[in-house]
Write the structure tokens for this entry.
Amino acid sequence: MLPILFEDNYLLAVNKPPGMQSDKDKWRHPSAEVEVTVYFKITYPLKKQLAAVMTHRLDRAVSGVLLFAKTPAAIKSLGSQFEGRTVGKFYLAILEKCPPQDEGELVHWLKKDDEHKRAIIVNPHTKASKECRLLYKVLQKKGREMPRGNRAANRALPPDTGANGHHRLPRARR
């Protein structure tokens, strides 16, 4: 089972490792959703009404906190909070190379690749592409040199999820 960070009667927060997908697929790749479903069946065998409903996803390559709703009331409440964007989210990245500025914005155009369950960076004029913006701010610079001769930097990344939620992709491709 994935490490549990928080659990109560309504919510379960787990730490998803990089390389594991968030949701199950038809090929039965390992996923956080399946692991949480199995956890519920083993831990709460008499509570058939428990659901393992993800309230958001994280890309396969990304590690982080995944929040699951356990009850219909929690599903409805969290769904409206995410839809209304009243939930605060941020991403912390540890970089091999410092960006040229301590604060900035990355802008790319993305297109969904449904077959491979990912988004790809495309030309702005590509059909069915959407603009994706990512604001960043360097929080800390490490003093030690990285293997490629660059200093490490941490960035706080408040997402703009305008392009199908694929706001993590621009920094993954840099």
